[in-house]
Every structure is written in C-alpha cells, then in structure tokens.
Specification:
By secondary structure, the protein is mainly beta. The chain has one helix at 2-14; strands at residues 22-33, 37-38, 43-50, 58-64, 70-77, 83-86, 93-96, 105-114, 120-130, 136-141, 144-148, 188-191, 199-204, 211-216, 224-231, 239-245, 251-257. The strands form four sheets. Strands 2-11-9-4-7-6 form a six-stranded mixed beta sheet, with no helix packed on it. Bound molecules: zinc ion (2 copies). The site of one zinc ion has 8 residues, from loops.
Length: 277
C-alpha cells in the first residue's frame, strides 16, 4: 500500500503541470448531519457521500466546520475505496484507487461534538480530487446549516409578570368599584337657565367622586328680580326703575317714578309702592 501511494505521488508530480486542467463535469458530494439544532455537548454525525460513477481516483477531503463550535470525536471510512484513511481526531479523509469506484454512497462519517450552542455551517474542503488520468476534478458540496440550541419556550402556565404587591401601578390593584356604573347623587343645578341662557347641572358619584355635567336648555322664562331705581324722581322730574332677570340680568320691565310733591313733608324719597323693600 505504501508503495502504491509513492507511485501515485510520483505520477501526481509528473502531471502537476496539468493540475489546472479541471474536469468540466465536476462532481457534487452530499453532506448530511443527523441533527441540525445543537446544544453544547451534543454529538452530530456528519456523513459525506459521493454519487455513482464519480470517476475519482484520488481524494483528499476534510470536513469544514467552525472549530469554535465543534471538535471531532471520531471518524469512520465508508469503504468505497481499496485504500482509504480517515483521521479520527481531525476527520481528514484520504483515498486512492487505480480504478475509480463506480459505486456511490458514504465516503466517510465524522462525529462532531458541539462545544457550544451556536449557529454554524458544515461543508467540505477538497484538497485533491483527480480522475484516473490524474486530471483535477472539481468537487462541490452542499452546506449544512446548524442552528444553536433555541431556548425552550416559556411555560404558558407560569405568570410571565408576577404581581408585585408593592407596585402601586400594578394593574391587578383593586378593580374599579364603578365598573358596572356609578352611584350618582341627585343633580345639583350649578347654573340656572332662563329665556336667554342655557343652564347646567351636575351630579357626583357617591362611590368614586366622578362628576357628570349636563346642560339645562333655555326654558322660555326669565326670573324677575326686585325693582331697582335707576333714576331717582325729583320735584321737577320723573324717575325711572327697572326690573331685571335674576339669571341673565336682562331688563324685563321699566317704569317711571312720579315727580316728588313740591312740599314733601311725609313722603319718603321713593313714594312708589312698588319700590324695593
Ligand atoms: Zn363612581
Ligand atoms: Zn333671564
């Protein structure tokens, strides 16, 4: 076997000038992982497979993985080649055959131990792939995306926001005592209505103190107040008195006050009987 390898090496050196001649066809390898979500300590079994009639006489393939995410625990050759080796601590695979195998299948298997739960990718790096005429063959592969372990979902039966009894803003504080309606006192008129202006009334909840206001429509009648003298009568001129609405202040009635008698001995200043009390 060693002799075969050295002969192969000599042939490879002899043909190295043609190493840039790449097979137009190319070969696609398949990389598979038995799990794609990992937590630290998990073992992921990665399988590298080749198609039937790949036409590859020599191969050097390494697994490409994030060395911070995984380390190789072990590796096993698939048995497709008469000569094949896989390094159990690096996963580096080497094989050679004078006649390329026609059979496809598992080329080798590598066990990776996840060092941490992190997202990464697993694929291969091909450092050598030649056909039986020692021409380089382009080998590609898929990439396996590995996801770091996802935190377990929160138990829905567990309160996500436990009640803090000292938190005054806690929404579970005593609920609104008036949620089904307020318990109002009678209306109190805060502004009377008359013919000229609308009024307003309000009531207060006896439980929570909420105030509800309501307008009082104009009612068509003003409220006459007492008469007021706006111009006192004299012995030479009549006076004038008015009666205003107690609500809106509008003058409702005007009346004259008779002249005072020229000799007012017993008359009061305002002789009109309608005079204000
Ligand atoms: Zn209330
Ligand atoms: Zn009025």
């Amino acid at each position: 076997m060693k002799k075969f390898a050295s002969v192969l090496l000599a042939v490879l050196v002899a043909f190295s000038m043609f190493s840039f001649v790449v097979s137009a066809a190319g070969v696609t390898f398949t990389v598979n992982a038995d799990k794609t979500t990992v937590n630290a300590g998990d073992t992921v079994k990665v399988t590298v497979s080749i198609p039937e009639n790949a036409g590859l006489a020599t191969l050097q393939v390494a697994l490409k993985y994030d060395a911070e995410a995984f380390k190789v625990k072990g590796a096993t050759p698939g048995g497709l080649y008469g000569f094949e080796e896989v390094n159990a601590s690096t996963g580096f695979y080497t094989s050679a055959a004078s006649t390329p195998p026609t059979k496809g299948g598992v080329l080798f298997t590598v066990e990776l131990e996840a060092l941490k739960a992190t997202d990464s990718e697993i694929s291969i790096v091909v450092s050598e792939a030649t056909d039986n005429e020692y021409n380089d063959v382009t080998v590609t592969s898929n990439k396996v995306a590995i996801k770091g372990f996802v935190e377990a979902p929160v138990d829905p039966t567990e309160p996500t926001n436990p009640v803090d009894p000292t938190d005054p803003t806690d929404p579970t504080e005593p609920e609104d005592p008036c949620k089904d309606g307020h318990n109002y006192s009678e209306y109190i008129v805060t502004k009377k209505a008359c013919a000229n202006q609308a009024g307003e009334k309000q009531r207060t909840c006896k439980v929570c103190g909420n105030i509800e206001k309501e307008a009082i429509a104009k009612n068509g009648k003003c409220e006459p107040g007492a008469w007021k003298v706006v111009k006192a009568a004299t012995t030479t001129a009549e006076g004038e008195k008015v009666q205003e609405c107690k609500i809106c202040g509008e003058v409702l009635q005007r009346a004259k006050i008779a002249k005072l008698p020229s000799n007012p001995i017993t008359n009061p200043a305002i002789p009109n009987t309608d005079a204000q009390a």
